[in-house]
């Protein structure tokens, strides 16, 4: 008997039949004057040409703590939207844009998988409409303006040792984490230490995703703190006078991108901050535009509920002035067994005891969503090696705990495999919730961080390093302590130690540094060894990639 090798995501995407983007726009009731085509299957939307209030209901898709086994959050997001579309709901997807770092590295793209993908997959995962390049250019233009100001006499008295603005690139390159610039004599500039972050960690990416209009974008850019003077006073972009130029570089990128799923559901893909080092959500302007155009908007936030969902609730929803109407928590048998101590090489074997132990991680994420006043739906994302005993174990646990749960098989079946999940979500959307943020902005930094650690991570408490304490005092001096918290933490554990899987207890989170992001409007608290410029793995995904004779991609997932 000859076994048929399953098609790759790229092969499935290439075999799909796409509609012209004008048809998708018409289906979504987008006026013709709002559409700016980027070829046959992509378009940008001029949101000024779209009327109506953002009244659509928001469904947030999050997940358990990620593992190398995979959870399929983006896949479920797309499959759920297609399932609702199949049930005749007026629905739209709102996703983040992929970064070339994970695409070329190890994590992969962000367009879903199997028969639950957004298209054109190849374009979206590579350069798309150039948004990330525009953000990279704006970030590095600001860096150039800073160094030029110092070179030309330094009228603002900027201390080169206290510049916190870094250059960026949209690739993983550990060699650029710390660099020295300006070498070669007086005409080459002023020598100083510098470094690179990945583009998705740039504050401009966060600003881009949290701005509600072009004017708001310009104001936020002007509020960015780039460093401090010799007198320890903050220096803002507005003092350099370049916020207009930066906005000009971003004005086209700021328009949301319209694409489609395999089943023809309209999708907006726009902005892409990482959730372990930034706030991990697509742009507010895309989400609000989708809410103007559809009755239901399916969106996702990066990594597990401890990172992306927490920041969606406490940062994005607060700044966008809307609330999630339903939340889906994605889990797989494979990932739960890894949280129960099973090695990746042994996941195909049935192991109900390890699964039961690993379900503690799922239980914590369910508790977290409930802490925000929203009742979650668990999407048990099927995998070919799942046994009936394992599936029944999770289903029985959820039923006994009063948790809505749905078997989900959208990778293999597309929207059809998400019908049960869609019906649960529709039930939740017809109910009222008591959504609320977990902390008030007027609370102290220590109180806000402690709330996140105890209520979201399940930790015991927080420790601040001496450096973090000094930074906290400085932040309070300038009156910036009224901002929300953006935790930079490992995605693999509820704690700040990646190896502590499952549901660790009695742990303490250490805050080693606090970086004010005045443009984005939050304070980044760095924990553990979290890197703002990742490195490539020993065998990067790029080794499998190529181009066919006809110009099509090879080996892209």
Can you describe this structure in just a few lines?
With 557 residues, this protein is of the alpha/beta class. Helix content is 35%, strand content 20%.
Question: What features would you highlight for this structure?
Answer:
Rossmann fold; Domain 2, N(10)-formyltetrahydrofolate synthetase; twelve-stranded mixed sheet; Formyltetrahydrofolate synthetase, domain 3
Describe the structure.
Helices cover 35% and strands 20% of the residues. By secondary structure, the chain is α/β, with parallel strands linked by helices. The protein folds into 3 domains: 9-120 and 257-429, P-loop containing nucleotide triphosphate hydrolases (Rossmann fold), CATH 3.40.50; 131-250, 2-Layer Sandwich (Domain 2, N(10)-formyltetrahydrofolate synthetase), CATH 3.30.1510; 445-527, Formyltetrahydrofolate synthetase, domain 3, CATH 3.10.410.10. α6 packs antiparallel against α10 (243-250), α12 packs parallel to α14 and α14 runs parallel beside α15 (388-400). The model has no long low-confidence stretch (mean pLDDT 95).
Q: What is the CA-based Rg, rounded? A: 23 Å
Query: Approximately how much beta-strand content do the residues carry?
Result: 15-25%
Number of strands: 25
Unreliable spans are none
Shape: globular
CATH class of the largest domain: Alpha Beta
Contiguous helical run count: 19
Broad structural category: alpha/beta
Secondary structure layout:
Blueprint: H1 9-15, H2 21-27, E1 35-37, E2 43-45, E3 57-63, H3 73-86, E4 91-95, H4 100-104, E5 112-113, E6 116-119, H5 121-125, H6 131-151, E7 158-163, E8 167-169, E9 179-181, E10 192-194, E11 196-198, H7 203-210, H8 214-222, E12 225-229, E13 234-236, H9 237-240, H10 243-250, E14 257-261, E15 266-269, H11 284-293, E16 296-300, H12 305-320, E17 326-331, H13 333-339, H14 352-371, E18 376-381, H15 388-400, E19 404-408, H16 410-413, H17 419-429, H18 445-457, E20 461-464, H19 466-478, E21 485-488, E22 508-517, E23 522-527, E24 546-547, E25 553-554
Helix pairs in contact: 3-17, 6-7, 6-10, 8-10, 12-14, 13-14, 14-15
């Amino acid at each position: 008997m000859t076994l048929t090798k399953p098609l790759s995501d790229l092969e499935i995407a290439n075999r799909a039949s796409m509609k012209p983007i004008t048809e998708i726009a018409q289906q979504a009731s987008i006026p013709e004057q709002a559409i700016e085509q980027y070829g046959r299957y992509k378009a940008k939307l001029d949101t000024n040409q779209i009327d109506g209030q953002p009244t659509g209901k928001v469904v947030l898709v999050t997940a358990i703590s990620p593992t190398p086994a995979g959870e399929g959050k983006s896949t479920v997001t797309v499959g759920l939207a297609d399932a609702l579309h199949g049930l005749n709901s007026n629905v739209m997807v709102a996703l983040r844009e992929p970064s070339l770092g994970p695409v070329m590295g190890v994590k992969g793209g962000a367009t879903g998988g199997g028969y639950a993908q957004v298209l054109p997959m190849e374009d979206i995962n590579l350069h798309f409409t150039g948004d990330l390049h525009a953000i990279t250019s704006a970030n590095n233009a600001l860096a150039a303006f800073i160094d030029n100001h110092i070179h030309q006499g330094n009228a603002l008295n900027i201390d080169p040792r206290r510049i916190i603005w870094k250059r960026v690139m949209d690739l993983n390159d550990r060699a650029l984490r710390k660099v020295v610039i300006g070498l070669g004599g007086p005409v080459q500039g002023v020598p100083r230490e510098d470094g690179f972050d990945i583009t998705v960690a740039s504050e401009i990416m966060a600003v881009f995703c949290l701005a509600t209009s072009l004017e708001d974008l310009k104001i936020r850019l002007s509020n960015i703190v780039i460093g401090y003077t010799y007198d320890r006073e903050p220096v803002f972009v507005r003092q350099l006078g370049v916020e207009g130029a930066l906005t000009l570089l971003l004005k086209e990128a700021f328009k949301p991108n319209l694409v489609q799923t395999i089943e023809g559901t309209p999708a907006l893909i726009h902005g892409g901050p990482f959730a372990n080092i930034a706030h991990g959500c697509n742009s507010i302007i895309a989400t609000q535009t989708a809410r103007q155009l559809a009755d239901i908007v399916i969106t996702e936030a990066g990594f597990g509920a401890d990172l992306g969902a927490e920041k969606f609730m406490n940062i994005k929803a607060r700044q966008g002035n809307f609330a999630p109407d339903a939340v889906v928590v994605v889990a797989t048998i494979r990932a739960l067994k890894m949280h129960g101590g099973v090695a990746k090489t042994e996941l195909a074997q049935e192991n109900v005891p390890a699964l039961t132990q690993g379900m503690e991680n799922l239980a914590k994420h369910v508790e977290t969503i409930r802490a925000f006043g929203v009742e979650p739906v668990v999407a048990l994302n099927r995998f070919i090696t799942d046994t009936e005993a394992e599936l029944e174990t999770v289903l029985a646990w959820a039923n006994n705990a009063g948790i809505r749960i749905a078997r989900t098989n959208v990778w293999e079946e597309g929207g059809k495999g998400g019908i049960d999940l869609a019906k649960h979500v529709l039930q939740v959307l017809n109910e009222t919730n008591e959504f609320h943020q977990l902390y008030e902005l007027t609370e102290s930094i220590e109180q806000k961080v402690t709330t996140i650690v105890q209520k979201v991570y399940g930790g015991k408490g927080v420790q601040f390093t001496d450096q973090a304490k000094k930074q906290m005092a400085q932040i309070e001096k300038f009156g910036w302590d009224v901002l929300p918290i953006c935790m930079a933490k490992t995605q693999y554990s509820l704690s700040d130690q990646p190896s502590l899987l499952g549901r660790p207890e009695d742990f303490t989170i250490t805050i080693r540094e606090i970086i004010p992001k005045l443009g984005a409007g939050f304070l980044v608290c760095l924990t553990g060894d979290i890197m703002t410029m990742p490195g490539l793995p020993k065998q990067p995904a790029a080794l499998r990639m190529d181009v066919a004779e006809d110009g099509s991609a090879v080996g892209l997932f």
